[in-house]
Write a structure and sequence with these properties.
alpha/beta; two-stranded antiparallel sheet; 7 helices; 8 strands
Length: about 200
């Protein structure tokens, strides 16, 4: 379990040099090309679930960074309930349900940093290394990685933990993150969680 902080505000009770971001995994896939994306995303969901368990064992907190679907009055639990209610993405979601002590940040746009509390949360955690997972690799994961890089985070984007509408688009996005943003895109099993969390 993560080291507990004695922050009087209680904003982020955990302390960790690393954080695992699950980007837009609470998803109903009810949009054009959603079925195609879902087929590519299901294998990634299994890898993300395994990585999340390993991260928890290493004391690395999980942060769900999720689109608000344009519902400005919604909260995270309502979004989870919506996606579990016989949506196309139900099977995907069941693999990645949040735990009670996970964090969540709702975002209005592509990047997890844009007009959200993510930066403040990461500051309270003391995180310097970010592991980015989720969908879509060539959109919200890429935009979040861009903003993280500009904030001097060391990035890990496991290549088997993201999905886009096509394999080619995902591979191109991963190459961009590796070459431009200096991200480590090794597969999830090769990420040394103990090393980056200390």
């Amino acid at each position: 379990m993560p080291v507990r902080s004695h922050d009087l505000h209680g904003s982020a009770p955990d302390k960790s040099a690393a954080a695992l971001l699950l980007i837009d995994v609470i998803n109903d896939f009810e949009f054009p090309d959603g079925e195609q994306l879902l087929q590519l995303a299901l294998p990634a969901a299994k890898k993300i679930a395994s990585l999340k368990k390993r991260a928890r064992d290493a004391g690395i907190p999980a942060i769900y960074v999720n689109d608000n679907f344009g519902r400005w009055r919604s909260d995270f639990k309502k979004i989870v309930a919506h996606c579990r209610n016989e949506s196309r993405g139900k099977q995907f979601l069941e693999l990645l349900l949040p735990d009670e002590d996970d964090y969540f940040v709702l975002k209005p746009k592509n990047s997890g940093f844009y007009s959200t509390t993510l930066d403040l949360l990461l500051t309270h955690l003391g995180a310097k290394h970010l592991i980015l997972t989720g969908i879509q690799g060539n959109n919200c994961v890429l935009f979040t990685a861009n903003d993280a890089y500009m904030r001097d985070y060391k990035l890990f984007v496991p290549s088997d933990c993201t999905a886009s509408n096509t394999v080619e688009e995902n591979q191109h996005a991963l190459a961009q993150m590796q070459n431009v943003l200096k991200a480590d895109i090794s597969i999830a099993e090769e990420v040394d969680l103990k090393a980056i969390s200390s």
